[in-house]
## 1
Amino acid sequence: LRPFFFDCLLSDLILGRNILLVTHEEILKELLRLAKHLSIDAFMDRDIPIDHPIVLSYSPEKKDFIDGHY
């Protein structure tokens, strides 16, 4: 999943493209963990709402996610 995050998703965000991603809970948790730079242990116990959208904003200037809400 890590190569997909960096090679596909992040490269599109760097180019300023919007992404709509529909996935299962465990994959969603892993993608959010990568986006937030968290360890597996620090993140896997968190409850992630799966019944409504999760929106993240990416800043190409800062090369990081700057905002997120669900």
Note: The radius of gyration is 12 Å.
## 2
Amino acid sequence: NGLIRRFYPKGTDFSQVSHRKMAELEHILNTRGRKSLGYRSPQRGIFNALTGGISPLGFVVFRVGMGRCS
């Protein structure tokens, strides 16, 4: 809720906010690093949890980025 309020102040009528604007905000928040996740994004955290940290392209996902498997 606090992160959403950075974009839309308290009292905003969300029925007046388009689905596209909400989808853009959802993308911004889901790809933004969080301190509580070791500065990884929630999207990266879910990806690592579901795949064990290995992408379908053969990359190993490290804490600070991605590197190629050798």
Note: Helices lie at 2-5, 19-30, 42-51.
## 3
Amino acid sequence: AAVSGLGRINDDGAGAIGKAMSDSNEGVRLSAVKAASKINGFNDATSVAKLMGDSSAVVRKNGIELLETF
């Protein structure tokens, strides 16, 4: 919930979204990548690129879509 709130206010939470992308919970990772897509100037491409090896196909797909915006 907190991660998606950061996306709504256009704030990466001082790196919190990038950290959430490596959370053990798939839902948290998915929320993080979706929130990042809403943030103007989100530039943590390294954290997004790591999602390419995620165990969840949905997280990988969303990560690819986000990488395409860089």
Note: The chain has a mean pLDDT of 87.
## 4
Amino acid sequence: IQIMCSSRVKKYNANFSTHTLRHTAATMYLNKGVQLKTVSTLLRHSSIKTTADIYVHQSSDSVREELDSVL
């Protein structure tokens, strides 16, 4: 993937790596409601705890949305 993206990275003078893409994808999956275990499997983490510790972030917007949905 990095080889495929390298020409675009140079063209747009972007500064990111395949790790950045991986992190972004994992975060987007979780924000869209994909189960943590599924994301952990996709990332090939040996433990779901690794995925949770790195990728699960509770944003103030998500807290507000969740509270609004039950009120």
Note: DSSP finds five helices and no strands in the chain.
